[in-house]
Amino acid sequence: MKVFLTSLLLVSLLLCSSFFQCSVAYSKSEAPQAQVPLPPVAPGPGLEGFCDAKCEGRCVEAGYKERCKNYCMICCRACKCVPSGTYGNKSECPCYRDKLNSKGNPKCP
What domain of life is recorded for the organism (predicted)? Predict the structure, then answer.
């Protein structure tokens, strides 16, 4: 009987520790990453050039390039930033990440 209780205790400790490790790993992956501040871009012709170049790069692999670029330009003008890469990396620009359309889906590509 003592062997059974001891083995049951060891198994439960192992299970608890594995759940704890999973929860710690999940919380670390969700932790905010260090953000590099972007240089301020004043509204006007400089902003248009900035947004045009950034959105062109962001939408280069999109299936509907014109739609992607139109929405990207709207978001860029409002947020004055565009995340790097063609997909993801939205944590670099919280305003861009948090914009939603009327259906509650992300607005910015």
Answer: Eukaryota
| Whether this model's pTM surpasses 0.85 | no
SS3 content of the chain, % helix, strand, coil (to 5): 60, 0, 40
Query: Which residue spans within the chain are E strands per DSSP?
Result: none
Which 3 state secondary structure label does DSSP give 100?
strand
> How would you label 71-97 residue by residue, b for 16+ Cβ within 10 Å and e otherwise?
bbbebbeebbbbbeeeeeebebbeebb
**H-state helical runs in the chain:** 2-29, 45-58, 65-79, 94-98
Which residue has tokens 């670029």? 69
Number of residues written out for the chain: 109
23-54 pLDDT per residue, tens: 444 444 444 444 445 555 455 556 788 899 99
pLDDT value, residue 50: 87
Question: What residue type is assigned to position 90 of the chain?
Answer: K
